[in-house]
Write a structure and sequence with these properties.
Layout: H1 3-6, H2 19-35, E1 51-58, H3 61-77, E2 81-88, H4 93-103, E3 109-113, H5 117-122, H6 130-134, H7 146-151, E4 153-154, E5 157-158, E6 160-173, H8 174-180, H9 191-201, E7 203-204, E8 210-212, H10 222-231, H11 249-263, H12 279-284, E9 290-294, H13 298-301, E10 309-312, E11 322-331, H14 338-349, H15 351-359, H16 368-371, H17 389-393, E12 398-399, H18 401-404, H19 411-426, H20 432-450
Parallel strand pairs: 1-2, 1-3, 11-12
Antiparallel strand pairs: 3-11, 4-5, 6-9, 6-10, 6-11, 7-8
Helix pairs in contact: 2-3, 3-14, 10-11, 19-20
């Protein structure tokens, strides 16, 4: 299970749901939509319209309802336009979108992951946004975080606008820390403090089996491995991305440290253990004292009334580093209505859309005007969330997918190679050096086949 691809609800990753969680989420949606003056239901008003816009995203009931309502609000402001939202259930969204483009039936506006942008841009599938922005003096481009704009820029062209985003932080259980007499995490924590705390927070039963882990995080996520590698001074590519150079002493030290957390110190569930229990569920059920994840997990943690949690920056190595995850909205290069589609994109990524993904706990603000208001850093409705600024502060040292991707190689191909070879290291088939050398060799073959950077 790839940690980046399936866990963020509004960015195409579901975080798992039970009947109780769905009821809680639905209640949040009803409150948010009621507060914003939206009714329930979907579709158009049935009145004749000169223009019809189709917009598409991965399906998830919580967000489908909101996206339909966004379309209804858009129709109210643009009486001559009718909208139709298409939700794609399951994990096949990207494949369906590619099929639709190949068959000439692509939606006018579509959800896109930052990892997918190069592939779609190179295929000529996405309409460049720069001319539309130039001709729209009311649009406040500078209000969007520049790091997010850069994530959706390919070459020198902006192809999409961010709809949600999050850095990754350290969630921690305050009750478990208090019971163990461990001070809460701070921005000064290094790997050493993280390990020391995890040891003290790990509990074993009379058989010596771990009953409570000090921490949990995903060991099957390529970008997750790169957190540790980049923090320790390692790199995936050289400066020009002409060669993969991951097999360095810094990278080896980083993955050896992580392996030791699960296999030597046993303070983190191992790779095989994670097949039986999702890491965030360990934290949710208070069987792990710390958890590394993005803002989208807040949506789940809010439903656990007995869970007293807070967030802190990730512990640092030689450097600070954390991923900047996001999704965006793009316009098909084949749309017959580019100007109307642009207006719809602005509705989807504008203040109303941003406030919603914040309120449900899925995202941090993509707009600086909202981030700098009291609306996000401290939300009085959620007393536990007093340190949301941690997510925003991490933007300054966050890396986007664009920084770790090769422009000529699909991320899914790259991440599969990284995960496969490091998995062999985790289960003892390869040493750290041999595993990273295998990653390096395989990625360099792909670079050569693509003709370099």
């Amino acid at each position: 299970m790839n940690g980046l691809n399936i866990r963020m609800g509004i960015s195409g990753r579901s975080a798992g749901s039970s009947a109780g969680r769905w009821a809680a989420w639905s209640a949040v949606v009803v409150l948010v939509l009621a507060a914003s003056g939206c009714g329930q239901g979907g579709g158009s008003s049935g009145k004749p319209a000169a223009v019809k816009l189709v917009y598409m995203a991965p399906g998830f009931p919580l967000y489908d309802q909101v996206r339909i309502e966004q379309g209804k609000r858009f129709e109210q402001a643009h009486p001559g336009i009718r909208t139709q939202f298409q939700a794609v259930a399951g994990q096949g969204y990207r494949e369906k979108l590619l099929t639709q483009f190949a068959g000439g039936s692509a939606p006018d506006v579509f959800f896109i992951r930052d990892f997918d942008l190069p592939q779609f841009a190179q295929k000529g599938a996405i309409l460049p946004l720069d001319p539309l922005i130039t001709n729209d003096p009311a649009f406040q481009r500078d209000d969007i975080y520049p790091q997010l704009l850069d994530a959706y820029t390919f070459g020198e062209t902006l192809y999409a606008l961010p709809g949600s985003s999050s850095t990754r932080v350290l969630y921690y259980n305050k009750r478990l820390f208090d019971e163990a007499g461990v001070a809460y995490p701070t921005a000064e924590w290094t790997w050493r403090e993280f390990l020391d705390a995890a040891k003290r927070l790990t509990k074993r039963d009379e058989r010596g089996i771990v009953a409570q882990y000090g921490a949990s995080f995903y060991l099957d996520s390529a970008d997750g491995w790169l957190i540790w590698i980049l923090q320790n001074g390692g790199s995936l590519f050289d400066a020009g991305k002409t060669r993969c150079i991951i097999n360095s002493s810094e990278s080896r030290e980083a993955i050896e440290f992580v392996k030791a957390l699960s296999q030597e110190h046993k303070v983190v569930p191992g790779l095989m253990d994670q097949l039986n229990q999702d890491n965030y569920q360990l934290f949710l059920s208070q069987r792990a004292a710390m958890f590394i994840g993005g803002r989208w997990y807040t949506l789940n943690f809010r439903t656990a009334s007995a869970l007293a949690w807070d967030v802190a920056p990730l512990p640092s190595g030689e450097h600070r580093a954390t991923p900047l995850d996001s999704h965006g909205w793009a316009i098909s290069a084949h749309t017959k209505h580019p100007q109307e589609a642009w207006e719809l994109v602005k509705q989807l990524v504008g203040p109303d859309g941003v406030r919603f993904v914040i309120e449900v706990g899925d995202s941090m603000p993509t707009l600086r005007s909202i981030a700098q208001s009291p609306y996000f850093p401290v939300d009085e409705r959620y007393p536990q969330e007093q340190h949301n600024q941690v997510f925003l502060d991490a933007i300054e040292y966050a890396f986007s997918p664009k920084q770790i991707m090769h422009p000529q190689i699909e991320w899914y191909q790259m991440s599969s190679i990284i995960n496969t070879e490091i998995d062999k290291f985790l289960i003892g088939q390869l040493s750290a050096e041999r595993a990273l050398q295998a990653v390096e060799d395989r990625l360099n073959v792909l670079i050569d086949e693509a003709g370099g950077a």
